[in-house]
Amino acid sequence: MAHAFRRRPDGSLACRLDGEEKAIIAQVAQETADLIRADLGIDADPGFLQRAAESDDPLRRLEAEFAGRDAREPADSAVKRLFPAASEDPTLAGEFRRLGQQDLADGKLADLAQVMAIIDSAGPSHSEIVLDDAQAIALLRALNDVRIVLADRLDLQRDGDFDTVRMLQQIGERVEEASEPEGDQVGSDIVIAVYELLSWLQESLLRALD
Amino acid sequence: MPVELRRADPGMGSLTDPAGAVQEDVGTSGPWCTVVWNDPVNLMSYVVFVLRRHFGYSRLVAEQLMMQVHEEGRAIVSRGSRERVETDVQAMHSFGLHATLERAGED
């Protein structure tokens, strides 16, 4: 069971996580990064465009130039929430995307990668993770982005929707006492549990930072 | 009431003091503004943290803006040149807040 974050005397922030919790956080961070890359068409290898731009083949150079300039409109509903339109005016929104989306994606992917590295360095068993303030900010942002993706999968649209989802889950559990839970329900039970864990962890880190 | 505000501009209507006794506003006047929209995911404490960290707002101002987002569905969190506001919107997106830029006076 996770323990709340606390500020240590040396100024670092620490929290105990068990192996399962660390595995879950690493997995959802990886899945969020994969989803962003796939939906926005970002190559997992950042050197790819650079090499294409330096290629002897003029067609490859041209391709790299266009790929670098292109900011693909998100298609996935969760990625749309992570990369929202910056204006109701489509021309303005498109321009904003073209100029800023790549940097925004790079930042989100860097935060997620940093979280995975922190979890990896803490090892697979129950242990303490220790963060400096910069790592804490990366973790806050990454947890938030992962929660945005999970919320989309749970179809949370308005304030209070998560309470409704939890209530329906509890009613479902009572009904299930008579029958076996269906596959879909088991899947969303896991998403609900992970969402609660990440929300709790984020709140705990915010309190420790305050 | 000593409220620390970056880019404070006397003479504007005030979120912190609707009666206008304290002539200070969040951000300065300008032709553009940054709007943050309500969503069911972001924790209230996180929104306050982001507003304090990015804009340097006091806790009081950040909490009032967060409550405005929560209760009214949106709040203007900064005003300024288009370039300034674009930077703010990009920063809000980097923290996962839903933000848009608008010409000031649209609402």
UniProtKB/TrEMBL annotation, chain A:
- In terms of superkingdom, the source organism counts as Bacteria
Xref: InterPro entries: AosR
Provide the protein name.
Answer: DUF2017 family protein
Q: What is the lineage of its organism?
A: Bacteria, Bacillati, Actinomycetota, Actinomycetes, Micrococcales
TrEMBL record, chain B:
Has the keyword Hydrolase been applied to this entry? yes
TM region(s), chain numbering: none
Domain Adaptor protein ClpS core: from-to ranges = 31-99
> Record keywords: Hydrolase included?
yes
**InterPro entries in alphabetical order:** ClpS, ClpS_core, Ribosomal_bL12_C/ClpS-like
Q: Where is this region: Disordered?
A: 1-23
According to its UniProt entry, the protein's GO biological process terms are:
proteolysis
Q: Which domain of life is it from?
A: Bacteria
Write out the GO MF terms: peptidase activity
Record key words, sorted: Hydrolase, Protease
Q: What does this protein do?
A: Involved in the modulation of the specificity of the ClpAP-mediated ATP-dependent protein degradation.
Q: What protein family is recorded?
A: Belongs to the ClpS family.
Oligomeric state and interaction partners are given as: Binds to the N-terminal domain of the chaperone ClpA.
Q: What is this protein called?
A: ATP-dependent Clp protease adapter protein ClpS
* Species: Brachybacterium tyrofermentans
Q: Which gene encodes it?
A: clpS
